Amino acid sequence: MESIAAFERAQRHTLDHWEIAARSERVPVDHIARSAHVLVAGAGPPLVMVNGIGVPGAMFAPLMAHLRTRHRLYVVDLPGYGLSDADRGFPSHFRTAHVAFLRQVLDGLGLARPQLLANSLGALIGFWLALEHPERLAAITAVGCPAITMGTSAPLPMRLLSVPGLGAVLARANPPSMCQVHALARMVGEHPLPPTIPELLVTAQRTPAYRTMFRSSLRELLRATGPNPRHALPAGELSRVAVPVRLILGDRDPMGDVTVGRAIARTAPGGTLHVVAGGHAPWLDSPAAVADAAGVDTGRARHESTTRWL
Description:
Blueprint: H1 2-17, E1 22-28, E2 35-42, E3 46-50, H2 61-67, E4 72-76, H3 94-109, E5 115-118, H4 121-132, E6 139-143, H5 156-160, H6 166-173, H7 178-187, H8 197-205, H9 210-221, E7 222-223, E8 226-227, H10 235-238, E9 245-250, H11 258-267, E10 272-276, H12 287-294, E11 307-309
Parallel strand pairs: 3-4, 3-5, 5-6, 6-9, 9-10
Antiparallel strand pairs: 1-2, 2-4, 7-8, 10-11
Helix pairs in contact: 1-8, 2-12, 3-4, 7-8
């Protein structure tokens, strides 16, 4: 299929641009049609990386370039994004299925208790996994504000996409294009995007499962007025996450500001907050600072001029 081939070319271009030697692995997973796609690169202790909603794992490429000499990286495409398949019924049991998905990916990779680095929805899934299977993760690093955690939400245009009927009209009016991707980047505080990332995102949005999975996931996560209470993670649940949590927050993240970040770090067990320049995907602005913060043991902070330790 040409849309898949176009995305594969864009992914290879992105990895080549950031000088990342990675191989693709397919991991059988019961909760999606056939398999999960994982990029494997680097050497060292295992670090699993999980993307946020609507973007492929290869969007981590600028950060992977800084982490590959420190970790064996396992970069996971969530169902429906990148090269991972998606069952149309998957969102109907959203939390349970995402926990099972990530647990089975870890099993398929032979990873008993790795560290997790995740963005947005990926961080939320990590919290869910740690609540239900605390023995499966050693620590969670959330890069960017975690999705719908302790009252956090999303900008209004994204919330409107979650409204049945209206969301479909808005999606048809804004098909995948460079203009649409740049508008999205502005909305999440990440414009201009670094080289190769716009092409990667446009081609990812044109893959067969993307539109259905993106819109159905938004309906599970959001309402026009804020987070969907069915899946939102309140402070009480976050306080029971039984692994250390490190939050690396962009100083212009529209999903949650530094005040929110402080509250999350105070609530999460062993929580720490590191603020860097950037928006909701701060490794696009400050990959070295994010890599440095991600490499610091929880509770031990090494001051850098580009990073504020709070």
